[in-house]
Amino acid sequence: MNEISFRNVVLPLGDRLYRLALRITLNKAEAEDVVQDTLLRVWERRGEWEQIANPEAFATTVCRNLALDAVKRAGRNATSLDKVDNGQWSAANGQLQVASGQSEMESREQLSLLRRLMDGLPEAQRTIMLLRDIEGKTYKEIAAAMGISETQVKVYLHRARTKIKEQIWTTNI
């Protein structure tokens, strides 16, 4: 891939990569470092771009792996999305929609509950749910990014959504 196509294809992914890294690392500085490392690694592999079918999925996979490595190096688990700046999780930015008749406080409480419930999911289910429901990725893109089949993506997503629904019903919301 030449410099111009890198500029047109990979660099615009920076915001998405940052959001993904931030959700995994829960640290703004670490997320920025992960995105820089991702872009550097993608650039270094520019000679292999002809063999890569989906550059976005490739960059997402590299970013996810680097973010998970950063969490492991720091010796902690990425388990709480509540510690992240709420501006990244507003209903307007993602596909999470809030009923129009609700007050702002009720909406924040529901988003906070959803974050806590998603925190309890296994890492693979949480990542798939984030990529599908927040980022709006297709099953094919998620499968490519995570290195699993589309069927497995659907199974993990179904299990995650089922678990979230069950927990919402038990909390009487």
Detailed description of the structure:
With 173 residues, the chain is an all-alpha fold. The protein folds into two domains: 77 residues, RNA polymerase sigma factor, region 2, helix turn helix motif (Rna Polymerase Sigma Factor, Chain: A, Orthogonal Bundle), CATH 1.10.1740.10; 74 residues, Orthogonal Bundle (Arc Repressor Mutant, subunit A), CATH 1.10.10.10. The protein contains eight helices and no strands. Helix 3 crosses helix 4. The chain is globular, with a radius of gyration of 17 Å. The termini are far apart. About 14% of the residues have low confidence.
Number of alpha- plus pi-helical segments: 8
Query: Helix-strand pattern, N to C?
Result: HHHHHHHH
Number-wise, the strands total 0
CATH superfamily of the largest domain: RNA polymerase sigma factor, region 2, helix turn helix motif
Q: Could you say what the CATH architecture of the largest domain is?
A: Orthogonal Bundle
Catalogue the unreliable spans. Answer: 77-100
Please report the distance between the alpha carbons of the first and last residues: 50 Å
Query: Structural class of the secondary elements?
Result: mainly alpha
Which geometry do the CA atoms define? globular
Could you tell me the strand content as a percent range?
under 5%
Q: Return the CATH topology of the largest domain.
A: Rna Polymerase Sigma Factor, Chain: A
Major sheet characteristics? none
